[in-house]
Amino acid sequence: MYARSARLVGLRAGNKYNKTQVPARISACLADISAWMSTHHLKLNLGKTELLFLPAKGSPMIDASITVEGSIVSPSQSARSLGVTLDDQLCFSGHIAAITRTCRFSLHNIRRIRPFLTQEVTQLLVQALVILCLDYCNSLLAGLPACAIKPLQLVQNAAVRLVFNQPKFTHVTPLLSSLHWLPIAARIRFKSPVLDFQAARGTAPPYLQTLIIPYTPARPLRSASSGKLTIPSLRVPGSHSSRSRLFSVLTPR
Fold first, then answer.
1. Origin, by domain of life (predicted)?
2. Which end of the chain is more exposed for a tag (fewer CB within 10 A), N or C?
3. Which of 21, 250, 18 is nearest to 140 (CA)?
């Protein structure tokens, strides 16, 4: 948790300070965290501390090591946090590959005992070991191109065929419909509005609630009571693209 906080401080500092000052500020932040932990009889494990720079579009890459208490923390291209593999480009290719490996291993084990299972039991196993893994933190994948999440869809296709004990090239659309399973892209799109709804009703974490703004028309209109949200402008000075994967932009849309 403390290493993650240090990464965020370094990222914000990069917007205000040049790339030579950022390493010094992150080192100072880690030193303060280490001192606080020592005061509370804790120890900062620098061996497990990871440094990940997330540069803004058009910003130069920062390739600098951080020195804390005589230990050097070098920047990495990816870091794992709470089961999610983050990369410096936020394309989540490593995370998708890890999910795919885990799910295919589970499907392989279920397939070995499939002759001894009923369809209902197989469905329960697949939902518990595969579908839940596909759904974990899938809102982070919102806005990714279809080619990026295709490996996850292939896993779901293999899972639904296993439930019905069908051959490899069986058409999966009617099988998914019979199980009431949404395709991967739809599952990802569904998760974002759910979080948005919870944030609008005040049941989501505060940091999500601050990202949405209720829609207020310039003059009295019937749409004022429709529960809509304000869509932030995607155009910023110096930007050549209007696409964004921000939670505050995707969910109102």
1. Eukaryota
2. N
3. 250
Task: Write the CB contacts of 55 (distance below 8 Å, at least 6 apart in sequence).
Answer: 14, 61, 62, 88
Nearest to 149 by CA among 95, 193, 190: 95
pTM for this predicted structure: 0.73
CA-to-CA distance for 54 and 130, rounded, in angstroms? Answer: 30
Give the 3-state DSSP-derived string for the chain, with helices as H, strands as E and coil as C.
CHHHHHHHHHHHHHHHCCCCCHHHHHHHHHHHHHHHHHHCCCCCCHHHCCECCCCCCCCCCCCCCEEECCEEECECCEEEECCEEEECCCCCHHHHHHHHHHHHHHHHHHHHHHHHCCHHHHHHHHHHHHHHHHHCCHHHHCCCCHHHHHHHHHHHHHHHHHHHCCCCCCCCHHHHHHHCCCCHHHHHHHHHHHHHHHHHCCCCCHHHHCCCCECCCCCCCHHHHCCCECCCCCCCCCCCCCCCCCHHHHCCC
Tens of pLDDT along the chain (253 residues) come to 334 444 444 444 444 555 667 777 888 888 888 889 889 998 888 777 778 877 766 666 666 777 777 777 777 788 888 888 888 788 888 899 999 999 999 999 999 999 999 999 999 999 999 999 999 988 888 888 889 999 999 999 999 999 999 998 899 999 999 999 999 999 988 888 888 888 878 887 888 887 777 777 777 776 666 677 777 776 654 444 445 777 777 777 7
